[in-house]
């Protein structure tokens, strides 16, 4: 029911008013991109201004007649409003315009319905749609206000509207139960990664900022990426090996947008929890977009809403190939911690710098040491090579490995527990290699 969409676009009239009482104005360019992403064919953009929305139609009588004339002239099938309409306003507008009317929330829900691919994604979208639909049932059932009485015509004592509300309520309850299982499975996966001490890096950002393109560049994956709003709905996780650090999990997530409908935040909470529980957020920013400063604030607002505002964040200024005289680089704060990286995910520019910055943040602080391990600890040595920790090595006359390494402090502590010995502390070295001890004592004298 919710996922059948016409293959061709629909002739559409776009409407946006400037309301004096609104502190934040909607972006008309973004509104048109949303309409195109939904498969609409915009033929006219009607704008205007009002002090307050009309309680009956949102727009005034003159603007309503202008919209009706445009609908008749273009034989439009849909009128999209870049505002949140009440159920009564939608019903009144549809009655006057004699075509479908959708507000901003309904438009975003429709895009999500088209993009959903996984079973979980479809459940989340359906939950959000049912919650939105439950307040708008009256429009379709005015002809069935009461069931008929009389012999053979008496029903269950409920109106059609009540029956629909009850069925929707039951379906919402069933979906919530299924999503609770998904949440439990995700939590189990997070606990497993925590036990294995594998950190999670979550990609967040405004929709169409380039998150999936960067995800593919980092992980060599083939996640769907396109120049359209909400190309990604299903969270994807991949393991990557970071230089001088080791393994980490990278998670690609759904993009954010200004005034993201509350129903979507609630429905996608299982997916968004992946963001709230991450060790590091990579905030992807389309630095070539004129409104990218405003988009940063919008993303931070959503992060606050899902409880992820305290997670460490690294800003990724993407699409530098669209700017003049901009080079890839890492910017550091006053504590010499990376705070911003300039890259182009599509062109593969600066990806190595991004990996370096992520490694530095996850590691806390990297240390350079020389360690000594026994000849029988070849498995430990191979793991160090696998993680890219070893910068140089030599083997002494007794077969002991002397490794120059650069790695996180916690990894060094773990190595010490596994039998590795720091060469800087001669008294900890086993006396089985007196030649080496004598050399070390001479070096440190």
TrEMBL record:
Mg(2+) binds at residues 212, 232. It is found in: Cytoplasm. GTP binds at residues 205-212, 230-234, 252-255, 318-321, 344-346. Its cofactor is Mg(2+). One of its GO terms (molecular function) is metal ion binding. Pfam families: GTP-bdg_M (PF16360), GTP-bdg_N (PF13167), HflX_C (PF19275), MMR_HSR1 (PF01926). Residues 199-366 form the Hflx-type G domain. One of its GO terms (cellular component) is cytoplasm. Keywords: Cytoplasm, GTP-binding, Magnesium, Metal-binding, Nucleotide-binding. It comes from the Bacteria. PANTHER family: GTP-BINDING PROTEIN 6-RELATED, GTP-BINDING PROTEIN HFLX. Monomer. Associates with the 50S ribosomal subunit. Belongs to the TRAFAC class OBG-HflX-like GTPase superfamily. HflX GTPase family. NCBIfam families: GTP_HflX, PRK11058.1. GTPase that associates with the 50S ribosomal subunit and may have a role during protein synthesis or ribosome biogenesis. This is GTPase HflX. It comes from OM182 bacterium MED-G28.
């Amino acid at each position: 029911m919710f996922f059948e969409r016409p293959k061709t676009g629909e002739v559409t009239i776009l409407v946006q008013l400037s309301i004096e009482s609104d502190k934040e104005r909607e972006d008309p360019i973004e509104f048109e991109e949303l309409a195109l992403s939904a498969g609409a064919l915009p033929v006219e953009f009607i704008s205007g201004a009002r002090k307050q929305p009309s309680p009956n139609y949102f727009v005034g009588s003159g603007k309503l007649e202008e919209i009706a004339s445009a609908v008749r002239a273009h034989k439009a099938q849909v009128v999209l409003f870049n505002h949140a309409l009440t159920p009564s306003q939608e019903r009144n507008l549809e009655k006057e315009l004699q075509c479908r009317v959708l507000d901003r929330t309904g438009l975003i829900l429709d895009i999500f319905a088209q993009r959903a691919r996984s079973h979980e994604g479809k459940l989340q979208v359906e939950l959000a749609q049912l919650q939105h639909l439950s307040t708008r049932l009256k429009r379709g059932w005015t002809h069935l206000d009461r069931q008929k009485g009389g012999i053979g015509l008496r029903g269950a004592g409920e109106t059609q509207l009540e029956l629909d509300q009850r069925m929707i309520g039951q379906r919402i309850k069933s979906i919530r139960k299924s999503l609770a299982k998904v949440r439990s499975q995700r939590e189990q996966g997070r606990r497993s990664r925590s036990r294995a001490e594998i950190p999670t890096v979550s990609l967040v950002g405004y929709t169409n900022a380039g998150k999936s393109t960067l995800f593919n560049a980092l992980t060599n994956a083939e996640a769907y990426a396109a120049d359209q709003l909400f190309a990604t709905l299903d969270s994807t996780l991949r393991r990557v090996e970071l230089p001088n650090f080791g393994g980490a999990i990278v998670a690609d997530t759904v993009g954010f947008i200004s005034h993201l409908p509350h129903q979507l935040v609630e429905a996608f909470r299982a997916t968004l929890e992946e963001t709230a529980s991450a060790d590091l957020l990579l905030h992807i920013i389309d630095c070539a977009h004129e409104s990218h400063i405003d988009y940063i604030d919008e993303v931070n607002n959503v992060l606050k809403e899902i409880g992820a505002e305290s997670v460490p964040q690294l800003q990724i200024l993407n699409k530098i190939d669209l700017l003049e005289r901009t080079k890839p680089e890492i910017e550091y704060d006053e504590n010499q911690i990376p705070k911003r990286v300039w890259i182009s995910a599509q062109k593969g520019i600066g990806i190595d710098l991004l990996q370096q910055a992520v490694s530095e943040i996850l590691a806390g602080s990297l240390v350079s040491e020389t360690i000594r391990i026994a000849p029988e600890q070849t498995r430990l040595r191979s793991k160090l090579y696998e993680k890219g920790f070893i910068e140089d090595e030599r083997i002494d006359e007794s077969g002991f490995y002397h490794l120059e390494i650069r790695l996180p402090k916690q990894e060094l502590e773990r190595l010490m527990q596994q039998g590795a010995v720091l060469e800087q502390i001669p008294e900890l070295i086993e006396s089985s290699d007196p030649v080496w001890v004598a050399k070390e004592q001479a070096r440190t004298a």
